[in-house]
Amino acid sequence: MKNYIFLIILVCISSFAFVSCTEEGTHAPLVFDNQSPDPVTDIELTPTPGGFNVKFTAPTNTDLLYVKANFQTQGLGKTEIRASKYDNSFEVRGFATEEEKIITFVAVDKSGNESSIVTAVGTPLRAPILDVESTMAVNVDFGGARFSWENLSEGNLVIDLLAENEFGKLDVAQTLYSTVIDGLFNLRGYASVPTKFAVVVSDQYKNRTDTIYPNTPDKSLTPLLETTLDKSLFSQYLLIAGDEIWTTYGGVVAELWNDVTHDSGDFARATLVQPRTFFTMDLGVNVKLSRFKLHQRRTRYMSEGAPKEYTIYGTNEVPSADGDMSGWTKLRDCVAITPSGNTYVGENNQVLSNEDLEYAMNGDEFALGDTPEVRYIRIEFTKNFRVSTFIIFSELSFWGELQ
């Protein structure tokens, strides 16, 4: 009996050893040879911004494993990408200059053998970072500096905005992550004294522009004097025919200037009467406006009822009670954007991209340029983010030079 049990144990151990060896063997190449695969053929380089779309014909060797491409970029240095034997294309990205580039292609089989090298030469299109560098402008603005640029190919960019600190050195005041075509951003909160501003742009491939300064002899700007208007002086102007009642569904007009922007219950709402709905207010002071900001309701960011397109008017005269617009001056047409380019039509805390959520939480801000002195404001709402029968938002803020 003991011998029988011992025999069973011995058989089990032998079986386990056989299975273990078999499994271990599966990790080794199935084909062992020293024969190189055939080279890659029919390579096509289609230029793209900062790179190429690549097509090729892989060799037909049965033991082919992958095709690799090697190239050199300014930011990442030597770079290698691979395509499996089932693919015949890939993307090459990361070039910073519009100069001739060399890409080498090698086929690799399951034994690790490499084919002969095939070289392709091409010139990429202008990289997004160069578009931004050539169009970037740094100009004076109320309370700081205004940065504007074009990113026609919508590349993923990192934009470091620099401002002079108390020690006279440039520090990163804010970092933007942007893909928008027409970029615009304002650094605010600076005294009306000569201050150095600058910007540096980089991309995900570690390409980086030189530091870009204002076009001034000393690379500095003197921010224009700007005052935040006192909201305790604000009031709704109710005497104009055609204006809607902004108090429905629990919202009250006073909540539009109480400095509460992230509370879902803090808002004013009105019916959207096609093709437009007006809201008129008294700022309580005479002012040359520099900018204004509208905050969307917390639970309605870029969704149902949130203002999408509107026009702001101003006047220094007591508004006509009949709604006549002849005495009003158009200050600006406004379009609320989604930095990501996404088109949202959801509601109630829909999932926004990080870029869109940050933008919405900061509010829709619009510079007003050279405006006349005004006291009364009239906003004409014409479109919301989702077609609905109402307009809803949370807060209004204004800045400018008091008269």
Explain what the structure shows.
- Helices cover 10% and strands 42% of the residues.
- The protein contains three helices and 24 strands.
- Strands 15, 16, 18, 19, 20, 21, 22 and 24 form an eight-stranded antiparallel beta sheet that branches.
- A hairpin with an 8-residue loop joins strand 6 and strand 7 (118-122).
- The radius of gyration is 32 Å and the shape is elongated.
User: Averaging pLDDT over every residue, what do you get?
Assistant: 85
Helix/strand-derived category reads mainly beta
CATH level-four homologous superfamily name of the largest domain = Galactose-binding domain-like
- Roughly what percent helix? 10-25%
Q: How many domains, in number, for the residues?
A: 3
Low-confidence stretches: 1-26
Largest sheet: 8 strands, antiparallel
Question: How are helices and strands ordered from N to C?
Answer: HEEEEEEEHEEEEEEEEEEEEEHEEEE
Cα-atom radius of gyration: 32 Å
Highest-level CATH class of the largest domain:
Mainly Beta
CATH second-level architecture of the largest domain: Sandwich
CATH topology-level fold name of the largest domain: Jelly Rolls
Distance from first to last alpha carbon: 111 Å
What fraction strand? 35-45%
Give the tally of β-strands. Answer: 24
- Tell me the overall shape: elongated
How many H/I helical runs? 3
Sum up the structure in keywords.
403 residues; mainly beta; Immunoglobulin-like; Jelly Rolls; 3 domains; 8-stranded antiparallel sheet; elongated; disordered N terminus
Secondary structure: elements and pairs:
Layout: H1 2-25, E1 41-48, E2 51-57, E3 64-73, E4 77-84, E5 89-93, E6 101-109, E7 118-122, H2 128-135, E8 137-141, E9 144-150, E10 157-164, E11 170-178, E12 182-187, E13 195-203, E14 220-221, E15 227-228, E16 235-236, E17 268-271, E18 277-295, E19 307-315, E20 329-335, H3 354-362, E21 364-367, E22 373-384, E23 390-393, E24 395-402
Antiparallel strand pairs: 1-2, 2-5, 3-4, 3-6, 6-7, 8-9, 9-12, 10-11, 10-13, 13-14, 15-24, 16-18, 17-23, 18-21, 18-22, 18-24, 19-20, 19-22
